[in-house]
Amino acid sequence: MQYEPVIGLEVHVQLKTKSKLFCSCATMFGAEGNRNTCPVCLGWPGSLPVLNEVALKLGIRVGLALNCKVAERLKFDRKNYFYPDLPKAYQISQFDMPVNGRGWLDVETKGGQAPFSEEKKKVPVPFITKRIGITRAHLEEDAGKLLHEGIADGSLVDYNRGGIPLLEIVSEPDIRSPQEAYDYLTALKAILQYIEVSDCDMEKGSLRCDANVSVRPVGQEKFGTKVEIKNLNSFKMVQKAIQYEITRQTEAIGDGETIVQETRLWNDAKGTTFSMRSKEEAHDYRYFPEPDLVPFTLSRETVEEIRKTLPELPLERAKRFIKEYGISEYDAYVLTQERKLAEYFEACLKGQILGKEDLSLSAKLASNWIQTELLAMLNAKNIAIEDCSISPQALAGLIRLVEQGTLSGKTAKDVLQEMAATGKAAEVIVKEKGLTQVSDTGLIEKAVEKAIAANPTAVAEFKAGKQKALGALVGAVMKETGGKANPKVLNEILLKNLSK
Amino acid sequence: MEINIEKISELARLNLKPEEKHKLAQDLGAILEYVKKLDVLDTKDVEPTSHVLNMENVFRADEAKPTDAARKALQHAPETEGSFFKVPKVVQR
Question: Tens-digit pLDDT profile for chain A (500 aa)?
Fold first, then answer.
């Protein structure tokens, strides 16, 4: 029997505030253990939580970006459970009146297809836009952190994270493949970064994801029993863990086993999930309204004011890039995944010259230079685009030289490396090193004549219809001119001379 | 009203003696019975009350202020290590 997976994701994102959700403790990462705590977040008797207004507004901002219905009335509830990471033995969360209700997110996905088409290896398969439903996105406080490693006789507790504002974004079980899950997370993260609500740094715990996975026979409407996977520290891990879980569940059902609803942890070293097998504790959180916090009413004016401050979102921007600059869907997608990268691209484009006459050619050049050369260089050194030492204007300067025909593409790549190393402008490097491309037809003419005279075999082969033989002649001319001959001019002259 | 005292005591992490269980089950049952009187009222068009104070939208400005709470809390903790609280070994949840 054919089985299909049904996947839903729960994403916890830390909202970028100076202080915690219900108290004035700092949220700064990396402080000394328990330094950022106070009577409220340590759960001392008699202390009272008070809601951080910025946290609520950031939460609404996310809701609006995800097309959610923002609540008119909201309240907080206590989620009760005993664990040392919760000093109060309950977490303040939202149960039945969350800040954000139903919404959706459009995801550009290849839905588990190969990234490139079969026949034309280099042509990317087009994206499909898939709408993933958002069930809700609610505010809650984070728990403390337990440290187990290297401690034999106990666990250490750090409450610095306790009370940090989180927004839990729950997706509908609309996701149908590990690739779709990955693309959903990528799209979600891009939006969260665009709207500047979070650092989205998985290593610092400001973005976390749990996955709910089940399988069912294709065509069956009823969902299978779901398993929750935790301990997923990167999007790649989410993708791998879901793939593993789909295979495990499908095989188990094939062997006549029944799937048990449970929480499993991902072991990245082994590439498997394993059951937590924590003793059969009753999962009864006994939610009830948090009596220490009053309810909240959100006026539509407040909500609309927040909506007005939303920037252009990644997918809108990608569509605009395609329309305005005529770049490909794939390029537009890559360039808009990060807000800073998209801004870099547009700033670079403004500094080029062809922009006025042939925008799409200019945009294609900028897109290629950024994606292939600049990003490769930055990725190799693990540098973020915003920390790039080459400004978009400086890159535009280099591209301008290529556009003018002063530099060949190959030489320009060397100049780029030099720019990164020295911080000098492209024009300066070209002048200092005498790299200017030779477009002087007289000079090239001479080199061509010399090359033709020196390579009679190649000439004969070319005349016999062997196109490849041209390469040897081009190489000879390049050698003669120190690699500086303008390839376009060279080609013209060479072909002209050969047809004589 | 039937009270599942085993489950409730388990959830509340309370170790009750058999005689306590019996008495508490009776007490809790009586309380629920008493509150049940409210069921005779028609509350179809009444919005549920989540808070007894007639007050809403109480906010705090987003400002960070340091406190000395951790030092005091650590002083009174049964066990500490460095600036951390120490608790018996727990399994990962």
Answer: 899 999 999 999 999 999 999 999 999 988 999 999 999 999 999 999 999 999 999 999 999 999 999 999 999 999 998 889 999 999 999 999 999 999 999 998 886 555 555 555 566 677 888 999 999 999 999 999 999 888 888 999 999 999 999 999 999 999 999 999 999 999 999 999 999 999 999 988 899 999 999 999 999 999 999 999 998 999 999 999 999 999 999 999 999 999 999 999 999 999 999 998 654 455 688 899 999 999 999 999 999 999 999 999 999 999 999 999 999 988 999 999 999 999 999 999 887 765 556 788 889 989 999 999 999 999 998 898 989 999 999 999 898 888 877 777 788 898 999 999 898 888 888 888 777 766 667 778 888 888 888 888 888 888 888 888 888 888 888 888 777 777 778 888 888 888 87
CA atoms within 13 A on the CB side of A57: 19
CA distance B18 to chain A (A): 21
Kindly list the domain boundaries of chain B, sorted by start residue. Answer: 1-42
Q: SS3 for A333-388, per residue?
A: HHHHCCHHHHHHHHHHHHHCCHHHCCHHHHHHHHHHHHHHHHHHHHHHHCCCHHHC
Q: Which positions in chain B touch A44 (Cβ < 8 Å)?
A: 69, 73
Q: What are the backbone dihedrals phi and psi of residue B87, each rounded to the nearest 5 degrees, phi first? A: -125, 160
- Chain B CB contacts of A52 under 8 Å are 59-60, 62
Best mutation target, A85, A155, A263, A302, to test chain B (most B CBs within 10 A): A155
Residues of B in contact with A276 (CB under 8 A): 91-93
Which residue of B47, B79, B90 to mutate against A (max A Cβ within 10 Å)?
B90
Read off the tokens for A250. Answer: 């499908």
Distance CA B54, CA A17 (A): 29
CA-to-CA separations, A48 to A40, A54, A115, A416, B50, in angstroms, rounded = 6, 18, 53, 58, 17
Is the ipTM above a cut-off of 0.85?
A: yes
pTM over 0.90: no
Domains by residue range for chain A, with CATH:
3-304 (no CATH), 314-433 (no CATH), 441-498 (1.10.10)
- A384 vs A394: CA distance, rounded Å: 17
Q: Rounded to the nearest 10 degrees, what angle do helices A300-308 and A53-65 cross at?
A: 70
**Radius of gyration for chain A, computed over Cα atoms and rounded to the nearest angstrom:** 29
Query: For residue A379, is it left (φ>0), alpha (ψ between -120 and 50) or beta?
Result: alpha
Of B58, B62, B91, the CB nearest to A54: B62
Write down the CATH superfamily of domain B1-42: Glu-tRNAGln amidotransferase C subunit, N-terminal domain (1.10.20.60)
Residues in chain A closer than 8 A to B69 (CB atoms): 37-39, 42, 44
Q: Evaluate whether A486 touches A442 at the Cβ level (below 8 Å).
A: no
